[in-house]
Amino acid sequence: MHSFGYRANAFLTFAITILALICAMASLSDNFNSPSPTSQVQVLNINWFQKKPDGDDEVSLTLNISANLQSLFTWNTKQVFVFLAAEYETPKNSLNQVSLWDGIIPSKEHAQFWIHTTNKYRFIDQGSNLRGKNFNLTLHWHVMPKTGKMFADKIVMSGYRLPEAYR
Amino acid sequence: MGWIEESVASIKSFKIRQALHQAVSLGMIVASALMIWKTLMCVTGSESPVVVVLSESMEPGFSRGDILFLYLSRDPIRVGEIVVYNIDGRDIPIVHRVIKVHERKDTGEVDILTKGDNNEGDDIPLYAPDQYWLQRHHIMGRAVGFLPYVGWATIIMTEKPIIKYVLISVLGLLAITSND
Fold first, then answer.
1. Which of A4, A80, A127, B143 could cross-link B82 (Cys pair, CB 3.0–4.6 Å)?
2. pLDDT value, residue B92
């Protein structure tokens, strides 16, 4: 009854149960955090705007992104992945989402930032629909926990417009 | 070293009835593991509800040996989600982030482009030749939960099979010699 194997088994089972319980509690505690992040994005310049040889429109932007994501961080947060996407509708597609810039925020101290950058990923449309196009810029974030459930949310900023002519 | 003698003694006193009992309980363990896995498949809607991260392409978010829980609802795929996809002709699924989505108005079909957070470029080189987009049917699930380190057990067992065999034989021996 009280053999070595029996005790080792009981000990292991107990240890794993407690560990799982602690992980679950750490993940559940994230729900008590109600974040209130803020963000502002300006399009400073249209660097160039053209139709590629294969017929798709491509545009290069200079952006000024500022955000305060400090309230997203809890004790169970490993990092926050933040990215800016352009979202628009075209006659063919009900939704186009194109990621323009992203970054990894490792800690709360770095969660208030501003950055002046050109788009890191190419802003290419499926087709030639970008002239005079109204689009939204959406700041998305993805909270990666030390353990447990991942959270994601976004701020939509509307009222951006691309020029009528290629340049 | 009493337990070794005990084990030897219990092997010596092997009875057919006891052996059958052991076989049944072993069967029960295997069957219930299979039942849990299949139930998870039904609940999550994903053909593999739990995956182990094998590469470093999502560092520092996910490292090798971390476990991801997948869930595939009917909700459309959106930019920023971490999806697990399977390319035709490749047997290892890949966990990467969606960076582009184009959703068709008439059919609702989607074109998806992915990228690993730790990779320089996007995933087009990883796709099949002449494939530029992922479609819905490539997606096996989206990651919703995360558990660190636990997957190392499976990585070690697949890379050093000898450990797997030692483990199985020790467990088997324990199952045969246990009296309860």
1. B143
2. 84
